[in-house]
Backbone:
């Protein structure tokens, strides 16, 4: 994928949007933090599939109570 051209980045006032610069500055920090995180999937920490499904069901029930069941 090619980088966007200058004409794509520049808005109709002739300058790049401020939000673009804010996002661009934060992305390296975000990716560094993600690399430092330990990624552990809940399905791998439970002893059995049944335990995982029970925990998942509890979480969904809590969410349904908190936000209302549609």
Residues:
């Amino acid at each position: 994928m090619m980088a966007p051209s200058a004409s794509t980045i520049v808005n109709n006032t002739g300058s790049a949007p401020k939000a673009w610069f804010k996002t661009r500055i934060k992305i390296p920090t975000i990716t560094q933090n993600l690399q430092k995180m330990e990624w552990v999937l809940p399905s791998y920490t439970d002893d059995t599939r049944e335990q995982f499904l029970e925990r998942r069901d509890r979480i969904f029930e809590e969410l349904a109570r908190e936000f209302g069941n549609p």
Remarks:
- The chain is about 65% helix and 0% strand.
- The chain has a mean pLDDT of 75.
- The longest helix spans residues 18-36.
